Amino acid sequence: MINKNYDLLGEQLAESGLEMNIVIGAGAIVGAATSIIGGIFGASQADKQNRQAEEAYEDQMEAAQKAADKTNEYNKRAFQVDLQNYRNNREYEYETALRNWRYQTEIQDYQYLAAVKQYGKSVENTSSRLAYNNIAARQAYESEQSALNDLFTEDAFSRQGMLVDQLQNEGKAALGQAGNSRTKALQSSIAALGRNAAIMDASLSSSVEQSQRNLRQIGLQRYSADLNAKAQMMIRPEKPPEVLKPIQAPERIFIEPMKALPGAVQAPTRQSIGAPLFSGLTSAATAIAGGIGSQSNYQSPPIGSTNGASIFNLNANYGGF
C-alpha cells in the first residue's frame, strides 16, 4: 500500500538540489506524484524485464554450449571409432592377403613337386620302353641271324647231298655204259649238278637279301618305337616364379572433425530504465509548473493547514536529469 503521508515528490525534489517553498494545489501534487510513481514503476518493470531477458539469454547460451559440447564429444568418439575400425579392417585385410599368399605358395610348391615326380616317373617309363625296344630289336636281330645261319647250314647240307648224288650218278654211268653213252651220261649229271647249284645260289642270295631287309626293318621299328617312347615322355618341369608377397597399402589420412561451436543466440534488447523515470519526472515537473501558474495569487497557508494544500521543498538541479 502507498503511504499517503509519504512525500515522494518532495524527497525527489530535495535530492535534485532545488529548494523552494512553493504552495501547490492538491491536483498538481496528485498528478506529479502519479507521474513520478508511474516513472518509478516503469523503470522497475524495465529493470525486471531486462533481468528476465538476461537470464533467458544466459540459459539459451548455456543450452547452446551444452549442445555444442555433446556434439563435439559425439563427433570425437565417432571419429575414434571410425579410425579404429579402419585400422582393424586394414590389418585384417593384410593378414588375409598374407594367408592367401602363403597358401598359394604352398599350392605352387606342391604342384611343382608333383610335376617333378611325374617327370621322374615318365623318364623311368621311357627308359624302360627304350630298354624293351633294345631287347626286342636284339632278339629280332638274333632270330634273323639264326634263320640266316640255318639257311647257310641247309644250303651246305644240300650242296653236299648234291655232290654225293653226282658222284653216285657218275659211278653208275661209268659202270653201266661205255663210249659215247657214258660221256653223255656224265655230261648230263654234271649239267644237272650245275643247274641245281645255280638254283641253290640264287635261292641263297635271295634269302640273304631278304634277311638283310628284315634286319633293316628291325632297326627302323626300333627307331620308331624309341621315338614314340621319347615323344610320350613329359617335358622337364621348370620351377614357376614365386608368388608375389602382398604389400600393405599406405594408411589413409584422416581429418579430425571440425569443432562445433554453440549456436547463435540473439542478445536480448535491453529496455531503458532511465527513460520511464525521466519521463515521470518530466511529467511531474510539468504538473507542478502548471499548478504553480494557476495558484500564482494564492497565499501560502500556514504549516499544518488542512485546506487541501501542502508545502514542499523543491530542489531544482536540472543537470541531474
Short description:
The protein is mostly helical and 321 residues long.
What can you see in these coordinates?
It is built from 4 helices and 2 strands, in the order H-E-H-H-H-E. It has 321 residues and is mainly alpha-helical. The protein has one domain. Strands 1-2 form a two-stranded antiparallel sheet. The two termini are 28 Å apart.
Instruction: Assign an overall shape.
Output: rod-shaped
Radius of gyration: 75 Å
The number of domains is: 1
- Return the structural class: mainly alpha
Strand order of the largest sheet: 1-2
Let me know the largest β-sheet. Answer: 2 strands, antiparallel
Strand portion, in percent? under 5%
The SSE order reads: HEHHHE
The average pLDDT value, as a whole number, equals: 75
Number of helices: 4
Low-confidence stretches: 16-23, 294-321
Keywords:
2% strand, 321 residues, mainly alpha
List strands and helices in order, with pairings.
Elements: H1 8-16, E1 21-24, H2 26-176, H3 180-231, H4 274-294, E2 310-313
Antiparallel strand pairs: 1-2
